[in-house]
Structure formats: C-alpha cells, structure tokens
Write a structure and sequence with these properties.
alpha+beta; Immunoglobulin-like; 2 domains; five-stranded antiparallel β-sheet; four-stranded mixed β-sheet; elongated; binds 2-acetamido-2-deoxy-beta-D-glucopyranose
Length: about 230
Amino acid sequence: MAPSLRFLLLLPATFFFMQTLAEAATCSDCFIQSQAAYYPNSDEYGTDTGRCGYGSFGATLNGGDVAAVSALYRDGVGCGSSGNTDFILSRRAFSRMGQTTDAAASLLALGVVDIEYRRVSCSYPYKNITIKIDQNSNYPYYLAFVIWHQQGRRDITAVQLCETQNFACKLLDRSYGAVWTTTSPPSGPLSLRMLFSDENGDETWVVPVNNIPQDWKAGETYDTGVQVNS
Ligand SMILES: *[C@@H]1O[C@H](CO)[C@@H](O)[C@H](O)[C@H]1NC(C)=O
C-alpha cells in the first residue's frame, strides 16, 4: 500500500520539458516512466490490507487514490511514497487519471496505461503526526505502533523511545511497513524520537512535544503535537 501517490498523465509537450529537467544534476524531481494497471475486481477503494501496516486507514488516504507498488516500497521505508515499477491502483485511483468521465471510461477499458511519476510531498492539512498503537501490543511487555500523517517527502529511518526521567533510550525495530515495535519498552511517559532522512542522506532527529502516555493502550491514537513540512 503506497498512500498519497499522486500520478500524472503527461502530454508530449510536458514530457519534453521534463526531459530537460532530467538532465539537471539532481533527479529527485524527475519523472520516471512506468505503467499502471488496476485491480479489475477491486472495491472502488481497493483493499484494506497492505504491507505498510496502515490497515483500513490506508484505503482512505488521499481520498482513496492509492496504489500498490513493489520496488520503491523498499521493505517499508517507502511507505507513503511511490514505486519505480508498475503500479497497481485501486479502480477509483485509476479512473481518476482521466480528466473527464469519458476519459476515465476509456482508461478503464485500456486496463494498462503508460504513466510517468515522481515522488511528491505528502500533505495532511490540519493534522499532526499521530501514533496509532497496534492492536497486537501488550502493555507493558510489547509495544507496536504505526506512524500516521507524516507530511513531506522524507523517510523515517529510525525511531527511538526515551524515558523522560533518566533519558534512557531504546531503538525500535521496523517490523514491517510503517510499523515500529519493541519488546520490553521503556517505562513511564515516553518521549518519541524519529530520524528523518532525505534523498541526499541528510538526517534529522525530530522530537515531538507530546509524550506517549505512561499507560498507553492497544488501539489508541496519540497526537505527537508536531508536523514536518519537508
Ligand atoms: C498539533 O499540535 C499542536 C501542539 O503542538 C496543537 O496545538 C494542535 O492543536 C495540533 N493540531 C491538531 C490538528 O491536532
């Protein structure tokens, strides 16, 4: 599941413009050629299972314009971005590439189309980064959570939980997708630290203002009180 995919079907004139851009030194904004198809029998919104760990929340992201990809998924690091291989879109997302109802019907009839894509910034207006404690968590022995609503176009490549009293920190494991886990988590209110990495290898730790409460519960969501814009 790769939420927040934005895809563009480009006219030839645009394509040549992008070719010029492609020759620039940095290619993080370049469009990459690929193909897209859709699940022929899918619900309009596609499936609510997915290796990113977003669950049914994932199918609603970006208004349902979501896609499954393989290569840029990068074992979960790419969750929230998009892929360099064929895209398998929800029927809804696929038809939204058409600018009119008729165009959408023609696209659906084609089944597979050539596309060009690039990673874009994710945007979650009026939302902070939110921690959703996984249902499989077992207080206080096992903690797993998903990180929701991460704006921008960086990757979260490490997550730590620190005790607020003595600042002992524990590095979490990426279990799969956007799901971070640890056995025997630190105790007390927990200060979260997320390492954001960009495509140039620059890394920044972001420390939310809100702690995860001491008595965290499976299934709960906690607002971190922070958001990022890059
Ligand atoms: C985001 O967090 C700030 C505190 O840092 C808070 O004032 C604000 O209400 C939060 N926004 C939302 C949409 O929850």
